[in-house]
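User: Fold this; tokens only.

Assistant: Input:
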Amino acid sequence: MRLREDLLVLPDGSTAAYAYVERPRFAIVAAIEDGRVWMVEQYRHPLRTRTLELPMGVAPGGDAVPIEEAARIELREETGLTALELVHIGEITPAPALIAQSGALYLATGLTEGPQDLEPMEQGLEARPLAVDHVLSMILSGEIRDAVTIAAFGLLRLRAII
């Protein structure tokens, strides 16, 4: 992660400083079987609360790791699941005005359960499968507010996966 401040030349010729954060690409995984999707609940310090979201993250090694491999790593670490197949669904840019970062959304199928392998900062993370319709109602009610998770469910719905 790197904090940047660029000096921009605006259309009228004036200049302005623009601050943003650079972060490595991340993977988002929608592990779906039998009408259920695996979700993770974890503490998010900036919000001082726990959030419910899809498994996602940057693999150890950052951009040096192929993004599909990052998806497999995140899925196994956070849920304990391995997937027979990963299908790339689309790209998500969470906050382009603030962060230079994009995420790749994968659909994971052919799931096998195993033990989680949480990173130290993920202690207390809980993974569980929920009915897709229940998650959609949680998004509509505002109970799930994570922008990446909401965008991912939008892509999954638009592609007629859910």
